[in-house]
Amino acid sequence: MDRRQFLVRSSMATAATLLPFNKLFAFKAGTFTDLRRNVGYFTDRGGTIGWLVADDGFVVIDSQYPQTAKGCLEGLQDKTSQALDMLINTHHHGDHTGGNSVFQPVAKTIVAHENVPALMKKANEESESDTELAYPTTTYEDSWEADMGSETVHAKYYGNAHTSGDSVIYFENANVVHMGDLVFNRMNPYTDRPAGASIHNWIKVLAEVEEEYPADAIYIFGHGKPEFGVTGDKSDVAVMRSYLSAMVEHVEQGVEAGMSKEEIIDLEALEGFDNFQYADWWTLSQNLDVVYQEVMER
Ligand SMILES: [Zn+2]
């Protein structure tokens, strides 16, 4: 911790002991929400950060951006004086790994699917970003787990979906699943085809996830429309899967009817899925374009 960070931390700690407004300060540095059995999530800017802060385990999932990662780490260090056992990246995108360098000095290891380091490197070169990268140091092919005493944390790869390196992270005893960007809650997803995304396979991945975890599991989503939030249950995962399936159905019908690509992808909303457009985020048309390319390849 450098001197400036130390001063910020001490002044925050002092203020917190003097005033009963912990929430206010927490809000200023992003928002921490408890879910179940020492597992919760943090939102500020970028992909939702998941965390476990227990007496025998300290885990962070995803790191947003350097600035917001600082706020997250400081808030978590107010909850525990333990060393960070691990940072896990759900995938390589900059809004999930940009803050890795903030956690790296205090993290024993950074865990991700084996495709993540190369995807991070490529994305960084293409974007010419000046963000300091900190790469995963522990990678796995199909699945990985760590026993933390009172909690067991699992990472599992289900195949190409949002990218070609998406992990689903499961806190087994808390029964909380972090989906990374495999679920955009009630909004158009970003589909990174150059990084190996496949909407056809994404549907299968979500179906498998719905089968695999207990019915009462709590899910954390990488992103969500504000009115729906970034957590939910199995039924919210199913909405995402149905939305992707509706995209495929729409494109297949269009192709069968002899419509042009332009005609097929020129659509603002699919029937039954109104209001999935969020700000200037990725559009339905951009996703239909990806589906169209996939259908043409088949
Ligand atoms: Zn992403």
UniProtKB/TrEMBL annotation:
GO terms for molecular function: hydrolase activity. InterPro entries: Metallo-B-lactamas, NDM-1-like, RibonucZ/Hydroxyglut_hydro. Keywords: Hydrolase. Residues 47-223 form the Metallo-beta-lactamase domain. The keyword Membrane does not apply. GO terms for biological process: antibiotic catabolic process. CDD domains: metallo-hydrolase-like_MBL-fold. Pfam families: Lactamase_B. Belongs to the metallo-beta-lactamase superfamily. Class-B beta-lactamase family. This is MBL fold metallo-hydrolase. It comes from Halalkalibaculum roseum. The lineage of its organism: Bacteria, Pseudomonadati, Balneolota, Balneolia, Balneolales.
